[in-house]
Structures are given as structure tokens and as C-alpha cells.
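Incident log, support desk, overnight shift.

02:14 A customer reports that sequence design results differ from what the structure should imply. Their input is reproduced verbatim below. On-call engineer (initials T.W.) acknowledged and began investigating.
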């Protein structure tokens, strides 16, 4: 009745764990079904990255950064080129995550992702206790985008990366996390996109010359955008 995705299949599909959740949210800044895009301008991109905790308010102290003199001021606002890069990154990620769901191969989006990764910076950092980690470098927005890719890198080593997927329905393409034991989910919601695809296949099989085009079921997706933290 509810039309949301918290049915029997619900708990198996949802928000990605840990740092991967921000990658999922980044991919979902574009809602294909609703034709909306949160990254509508360079300023909107900078705002989004800041809200997601991906912008470093304190500039890299280890480099002789002239920006450090402007104490406390935010790193540069995004440029039009930054926005283009961010959107290219998002759509390359979408392609890779669709391949995770079994839609085509990752070849093309992966090489696009590699091109974008080539313009972002990261470097090893050693803590006072001798611990070593890879940290994003560069500045401002590009540092934030590098942080997204490093979250993907961490997920790759944890083995969770292939579970982050994008719904194979062309008119959906929503990112979801596949918690199913079989790891073979391909729709963001079995109760919406899955059943929609099934009824479409059924109509195609049984239509053959029937009268008019049947009305396409548009199930509510309200449950989908609802609660990042709830
Ligand atoms: Zn879907």
C-alpha cells in the first residue's frame, strides 16, 4: 500500500555504509526521474560539498599557500570548470555504478573516471604517531572531489564498492546500496522499479496489436528521497 521501499526487500537495499554514503549522495544529486539537479551552479556545487563535509576549511598548511594569509576565509568558490569536472565525475561514477548493477560494462565510464582522477590530487600523509594515510590534496572544490574518489578507494579495499549501484531502469538511475546476500540487486526498489520493469515486460509480451498504449504505472517515489538520516 505504502509504495515505499521498506517492504520485505527494503532492508536489503538502502544507504551505503561509512564514507561511501557521501558518494551515493553525490551521485543522487541528479534525480533522473524528476529531472532535477542539485549541482545547478558553481556556487551550488561548493555549498553541496561544504554541507557534505568535503570542503576543508583550513587550507593545506604544508604547502606555502598564499591563501593562508586570508585567515579563516573559505577556500575559493567553485569555477565553471570545477562544476563541469564535478558533473563529469558524477556521471562517470553513475556509469560505473550501473555496471555494478549489471547494466553494460564498466569500460567506458571507467576510462572517463580515470581521466577525471588524473586531474585530482592526493598524497600520502604521515601522522605524529607514524600512521600513514592517503589524503586529498589540491584546494577547494577539487580537494572535495578528490575526497569523494578516496572514499571510493577505501570502499574498494573494504570490498564494499561493488555493492554501491545505480538502478538499471533508464528513467530512474538512482544510486542504492545492495545489502542482499547474493549481491545481485539491480533496481533501487523491487517494489517500484522492479515491478515497473516486470509489468512493462508483461505488456510487451501480451500487447501485440492491442488497442491503445496502456497507461504507464508511475509509482510514487516519495519514500526514496525522504530520510538521509532517519
Ligand atoms: Zn530505480
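02:41 Re-run completed on a clean worker. Output:
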Amino acid at each position: 500500500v505504502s509504495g515505499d521501499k521498506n517492504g520485505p526487500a527494503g532492508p536489503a537495499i538502502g544507504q551505503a555504509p561509512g564514507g561511501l554514503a557521501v558518494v551515493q549522495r553525490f551521485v543522487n544529486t541528479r534525480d533522473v526521474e524528476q529531472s532535477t539537479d542539485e549541482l545547478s551552479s558553481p556556487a551550488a556545487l561548493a555549498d553541496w560539498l561544504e554541507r557534505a563535509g568535503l570542503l576543508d576549511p583550513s587550507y593545506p598548511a604544508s604547502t606555502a599557500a598564499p591563501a593562508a594569509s586570508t585567515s579563516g576565509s573559505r577556500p575559493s568558490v567553485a569555477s565553471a570548470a570545477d562544476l563541469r569536472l564535478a558533473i563529469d565525475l558524477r556521471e562517470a561514477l553513475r556509469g560505473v555504478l550501473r555496471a555494478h548493477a549489471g547494466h553494460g560494462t564498466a569500460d567506458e565510464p571507467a576510462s572517463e573516471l580515470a581521466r577525471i582522477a588524473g586531474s585530482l590530487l592526493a598524497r600520502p600523509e604521515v601522522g605524529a604517531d607514524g600512521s600513514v594515510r592517503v589524503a586529498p590534496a589540491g584546494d577547494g572544490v577539487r580537494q572535495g572531489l578528490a575526497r569523494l574518489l578516496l572514499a571510493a578507494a577505501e570502499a574498494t579495499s573494504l570490498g564494499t564498492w561493488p555493492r554501491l549501484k545505480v538502478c538499471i531502469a533508464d528513467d530512474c538511475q538512482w544510486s542504492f546500496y545492495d545489502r542482499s546476500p547474493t549481491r545481485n540487486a539491480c533496481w533501487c526498489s523491487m517494489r517500484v522499479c522492479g515491478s515497473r520493469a516486470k509489468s512493462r515486460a508483461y505488456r510487451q509480451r501480451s500487447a501485440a496489436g492491442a488497442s491503445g498504449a496502456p497507461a504507464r504505472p508511475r509509482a510514487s517515489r516519495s519514500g526514496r528521497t525522504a530520510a538521509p538520516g532517519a
